[in-house]
Structures are given as C-alpha cells and as structure tokens.
Specification:
This protein has 95 residues and is mainly α. It has two domains: 34 residues, no CATH class; 46 residues. Helices cover 56% and strands 0% of the residues. The chain is built from five helices and no strands. It starts with a helix and ends in an 8-residue tail after the last helix. The mean pLDDT is 90.
Length: 95
C-alpha cells in the first residue's frame, strides 16, 4: 500500500484507509454524509402556536424566554423566527 501511495502521490495513511474501506464495504466509494435534520423546535410546535394565538404581538425574545422557562429549550432568536415562518405564523404590520 505504501508503494501504491507513493506511485499515485497520495499519503500512505490515505491509501491504508482506502484499502480498509474496500475490505470493510467492498467499495472504494466514500461514505454518505449530511442529510436532513429534524427542526429543533418541531416537538414544541403546539406551544409556539398557543403562545402566538394567546398574544399575537408577542416578541421573539418573549417566546425565547417562555421556551426556556416552560420546556428548558435554549435556542437563538433566528431559530424561532425561522420556525414561526415555516409554520406560517408571521407578524403582519397593520397599514
């Protein structure tokens, strides 16, 4: 493996790891990475809807405080904003 690594100008550790992958999986193809992650606030959607229904002018900071107080969930304001938009709960200004 070290000779093959030198011939193809790659490090010996890369060649060793590649051959270990071939032996383990039967393929030199790289493993999958990434993928879909479930939103952090998905289990708390009922609470978010209730908060917005009870107090339509609630701020993101107030929602953040309630999440921390009631459910011990610490998330940033951007996460809350994104999840509210995903749920279709947008604050609309009155004209």
């Amino acid at each position: 493996m070290r000779g093959a690594a030198a011939r193809f100008a790659v490090s010996a550790s890369s060649a060793i790891k590649l051959m270990a992958r071939v032996r383990a999986t039967g393929s030199a193809a790289p493993a999958r990475y990434g993928g879909h992650r479930r939103p952090v606030l998905a289990p708390h959607e009922d609470m978010l809807r209730r908060l917005v229904d009870e107090k339509p002018d609630i701020t993101l900071a107030e929602i953040q405080a309630e999440l921390t107080r009631q459910r011990s969930v610490a998330v940033c304001l951007a996460t809350i904003h994104t999840h509210l938009r995903r749920l279709g709960l947008r604050h609309k200004k009155r004209a």
